[in-house]
């Protein structure tokens, strides 16, 4: 079932070496979805360095698309012998609808050791996984997963090759990516932040919204505060991508209208150098609205006075008959 996984891994883990130093978490993963609908297969594949997509698979030509000039890592063309990004399974007796999801890759744990793994899901449910040179069935996979793992674990040479790709070649290729793309991957972009109010949660209540956008890298801390006291009712949304590769997040707080004064949104991010962004909530007061109305009224009166003078002055100099 999964014997075509090896060409997939080989395609993006071609070899090479690097001695790049780093402190941040590092990971590289391949993601492939294969769907059988209407008597035909559709395969979608991609590769990710952390949260950044670096490769895409062109299913029509069986070729890998490198999304950045440095996506090949720091290897020469001679070293980078890329095989086709092959689909994972072929079955002439597949059911009418069949979905297979596979994630394979490696990541650095606690800055000390690399861990490689493969996870396979069928119809959206965990089926089996590979780690430490062993295929293991998921508890939800049932007898089919157990039988598949039993057959796969009999193939010692295949298991060892997959293990070496995940535990040795994948980390070296990932370090090569980090080295080749460090100008982009290690950049720091400061966030911009602003406040607004959302739809009222109910009578006498306010929904305070703190928008944080344009930051990179992705990790960020946003919290509504009263002085130094964190407001535990803060609700943070998903961190969403902007078109330029930076990120956006919003944090909301549901409070009574009388408790909004004194609240502030606090933003921590690595690009700020320890200088947090703090935005204080300052709603428009009744006095402010009164002053605005008075200013508008005075402006209208001044305009009317100017128009009246322009209209009446020519008539004052007409000779008496």
UniProtKB/TrEMBL annotation:
This is T-cell surface glycoprotein CD1a-like. GO terms for biological process: antigen processing and presentation, endogenous lipid antigen via MHC class Ib; antigen processing and presentation, exogenous lipid antigen via MHC class Ib; immune response; positive regulation of T cell mediated cytotoxicity. Residues 171-271 form the Ig-like domain. InterPro entries: Ig-like_dom, Ig-like_dom_sf, Ig-like_fold, Ig_C1-set, MHC_class-I_related, MHC_I-like_Ag-recog, MHC_I-like_Ag-recog_sf, MHC_I/II-like_Ag-recog. The lineage of its organism: Eukaryota, Metazoa, Chordata, Craniata, Vertebrata. The chain crosses the membrane at residues 286-308. SMART domains: IGc1. It is a single-pass type I membrane protein. It is found in: Endomembrane system; Endosome. It comes from the Eukaryota. Pfam families: C1-set, MHC_I_3. Keywords: Endosome, Glycoprotein, Immunity, Immunoglobulin domain, Membrane, Signal, Transmembrane, Transmembrane helix. It comes from Marmota marmota marmota (Alpine marmot). One of its GO terms (molecular function) is exogenous lipid antigen binding. GO terms for cellular component: endosome; external side of plasma membrane; extracellular space. Residues 1-18 form the signal peptide.
């Amino acid at each position: 079932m999964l014997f075509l996984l090896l060409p997939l891994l080989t395609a993006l883990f071609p070899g090479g070496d690097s001695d790049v130093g780093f402190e941040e978490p590092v990971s590289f993963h391949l993601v492939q979805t294969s769907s059988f609908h209407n008597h035909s297969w559709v395969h979608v594949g991609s590769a990710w360095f952390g949260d950044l997509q670096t490769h895409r698979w062109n299913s029509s030509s069986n070729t890998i698309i490198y999304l950045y000039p440095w996506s090949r890592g720091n290897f020469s063309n001679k070293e980078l012998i890329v095989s086709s990004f092959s689909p994972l399974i072929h079955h002439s007796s597949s059911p009418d609808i069949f979905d297979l999801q596979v994630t394979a890759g490696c990541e650095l744990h606690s800055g000390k050791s690399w861990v490689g793994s493969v996870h396979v899901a069928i119809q959206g449910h965990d089926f089996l996984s590979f780690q430490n040179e062993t295929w293991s069935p998921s508890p939800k996979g049932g007898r089919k997963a157990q039988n598949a793992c039993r057959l796969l674990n009999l193939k010692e040479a295949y298991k060892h090759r997959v293990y070496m790709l995940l535990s040795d070649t994948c980390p070296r290729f990932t370090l090569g990516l980090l080295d080749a793309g460090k100008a982009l991957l290690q950049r720091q972009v400061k966030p911009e932040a602003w406040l607004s109010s959302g739809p009222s949660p109910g009578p006498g209540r306010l929904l305070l919204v703190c928008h944080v956008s344009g930051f990179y890298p992705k990790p960020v801390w946003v919290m509504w505060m009263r002085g130094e006291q964190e407001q535990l009712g803060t609700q943070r949304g998903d961190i969403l991508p902007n078109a330029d590769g930076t990120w956006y997040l919003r944090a909301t707080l549901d409070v009574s209208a009388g408790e909004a004064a004194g609240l502030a949104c606090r933003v921590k991010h690595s690009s700020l150098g320890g200088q947090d962004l703090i935005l204080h909530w300052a709603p428009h007061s009744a006095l402010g609205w009164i002053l605005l109305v008075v200013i508008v009224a005075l402006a209208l009166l001044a305009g009317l006075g100017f128009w009246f003078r322009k209209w009446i002055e020519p008539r004052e100099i007409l000779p008496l008959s």
